[in-house]
Amino acid sequence: MSLKNKNRRKLVHGFIALACAFILFVIPFIFVLLNAAKSSAEAANPSFTWPGEWQLWQNLVAVVQARDYMLLLAYFNSTVITVGAITLLVIFGAMVGYVLQRRPSKFNRVIYAFVLAGLMIPPAVVPTIWVLQGLGLFKTLHGMILIQFAYGLSFTVLLYRAFIATIPRDLDEAALIDGAKPWQIFFKVVLPLLKPVTVTVIVVQSITIFNDFTHPLYYLPGSENVTVQITLYNFQSQFVSQMNLLFMNILLVTVPPLLVFIFFNRQIVAGMTSGAVKG
């Protein structure tokens, strides 16, 4: 096959990929945006028609003020859960990945088996609720942070382990000869080199945790513990006759993760492929 034909095929595949992405992601977003800007009468039958009068700001204010500013509380709770879980994932995920990669032993093989099991075995909801109740963490943000941390740890450890494999052991040995202690080697030598994969973990896991619906529904009941995705569930009955407000709520929940993905998509790809390419 000639070079010209190869380039033409790549161009065709690129256009097909862009068209699929446009249909799957852009068109639904435009649909939500248009209906979020309509009046309640116009949005009663959702469609792609242009709003007769743009009421984007009025609908936004109405959604934010609904149920004593529940959406603001949901944003606060989701942010606390996301920041807390991501902090634990970065610190402990990097530590476990470093030990698994740099300290091979029979015990580490057992740990690695548990890490893989965390990816393959589905979580058990009822026993987890029993554990949280026994620890006094059920219906608390602290308990939800630990749940998100536990569910995301396996994936995080595997990412860090693959990336640490690309860092030469000579750096560890040189720091050890200079008198550095093991914790100093990790925090002052290795951890600063993990920036690409750390950015990947922060972005991917933050989007996953922020958009999580099922886990807060199971482990974090109560109106005072509402998260952004739960607001869609709660507002669905309230706004059944005001579809424009429901679409506005969907828009407000969708935009933050979308912006994070748009601005950090290159870092996501770089962090997830670096270990595979170099390892």
Could you characterize the architecture of this molecule?
The protein has 279 residues and is mainly alpha-helical. It has one domain (67-278): MetI-like fold, CATH 1.10.3720. It is built from 11 helices and no strands. 30% of the residues are buried. Belongs to the binding-protein-dependent transport system permease family. InterPro entries: MetI-like, MetI-like_sf.
Helix content: over 70%
Structure annotation, total helices: 11
Oligomer: single chain
| CATH homologous superfamily title | MetI-like
Please state the CA-atom Rg, rounded to the nearest Å: 23 Å
H and E order:
HHHHHHHHHHH
**In terms of structural class, how would the helical and strand content be classed?**
mainly alpha
Count of domain modules: 1
Classified by CATH, the class is: Mainly Alpha
Predict the CATH topology: MetI-like fold
Shape: globular
Number of strands: 0
Can you give me a brief rundown of this structure?
Part of the ABC transporter complex UgpBAEC involved in sn-glycerol-3-phosphate (G3P) import. Probably responsible for the translocation of the substrate across the membrane. The chain contains 11 helices and no strands.
